[in-house]
Amino acid sequence: MSRIGKKPVSIVDGVKIAVQDRLITVEGPLGKLQYEHRPEVKVSVDEASKEVSVTRESDEREVRAFHGLTRALINNMIVGVKDGYEKRLEIIGVGYVGSLQGDTLSLRVGYANEIKKKIPAGLDVKLPDQTHVVVKGCDKQMVGQFAAEVRACRKPEPYKGKGIRYQGEHVKIKPGKSAT
Which CATH number fits domain 85-166: 3.60.15.10, 2.40.37.10, 3.40.50.720, 3.90.930.12? Predict the structure, then answer.
């Protein structure tokens, strides 16, 4: 048995979950998420104990992987609609700034032109100041993907550490050339 897949997912208060055929719908205070799981896996909701259990048909390697994956995705959906997910980014460098213009994030990070990233629907992006970006949303994958795309606009370079990085991310600084 998959150690993650066999654990039941508890349904927290304020979250409604429905399973129709292979479509799982999770609704909560922060939004609504849907996921269509693989046919090799079965998902059942027990309203009495407020738990979601995931079972599999066989012990093939790929099916075991889908078993744990499905359980983890359902858990992420429940946490997302209840509490939400958040990624924080720092813009480091002289003259490097970010700004919001409607549903577009504009970044000036050392290139000749501004980089403009359209913010996907369902995400809440804020800039507390010009050098910090906060990405929030109920879909863990969407939050992480957008934060990674913003970071990829200008990755931190290893000599001065300039660029966009996750808050708390440690960048190993190389010493550079030294005159002897």
Answer: 3.90.930.12
